[in-house]
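Now read these lines:
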Amino acid sequence: MLLSTAVCLAQKDWRDPDGPVKIYNTAKKKLMEGKQIVGVTISSPDPNIYCAAANSGFDYTWIEMQHSPLTYSDVAKMIYACRGASAMPFIRVPDATESDIQKATDIGALGIIVPTVDTVEKAQNAVKWSRYPPRGRRSMGNGQYGELWGKDYRQTINDNMIVVVMIETPLGVANAKEIAAVPGIDVIFAASTDLGNFSGTKQGEPKYEAMVKIIHDEVLARGIKLGGPLAWRGRPERPGFTFFQGPGEAALLKLGAPVSLGTGAKTIKSGVAPLEGQEK
């Protein structure tokens, strides 16, 4: 069982810093300052593509390991090849298991994104395996994290890690209040595609919009950051969102090619988020 936030803050431990917190996760720093952040979705194992995307102006990379054949070996090479990139490496892991999150953190991820969080237990697991004691139960072992983030990584990473949980189902929505109350969650993401997929509704329909409103209200009431697709940014009907998932490499190529060819600029439609896997 996780310790409460109050207990964790009060407990003295050599592994946590005593002085000012050192924040090198620039995406988290922007969120803490009340700013919006946007991530580029990465599904390709090519380090060159990764580096191009990670240095193109996005705040973080949403490395997609739930819906892609990427391996942890692939991702480790990508992150290391582009160490020093302006975008912070975040990984959407397949599940909130110790094995998946341990590998993701050991290869240097500064953000863990956990899909299909329906229950408090799964939300707790997302936090538990993402942070070292006394704030969690992450094991300390070998990894390339020290070469990426410094020799004081063990003392600083708990404050630099971002834990994102995704609510994607009607069950998750029903448990949104309890999920939002789990200590250590930084962002709760309203999953636009799967809210419709699992409920049989579409964006704009009353049942769908009611689910989004529940997530919105419960998340912001707890002071947690609210996430969603980039198409929802700046929409008056979607207030309070500050964490956004942007398009993937293929969509960016389609947007950039017309500009390069001089055939006219294309823009991403705003408002209704495209379905994942069916972006035009």
Observations:
- Residues 187 and 225 are 5 Å apart (CA to CA).
- Residues 206-221 form the longest helix (16 residues).
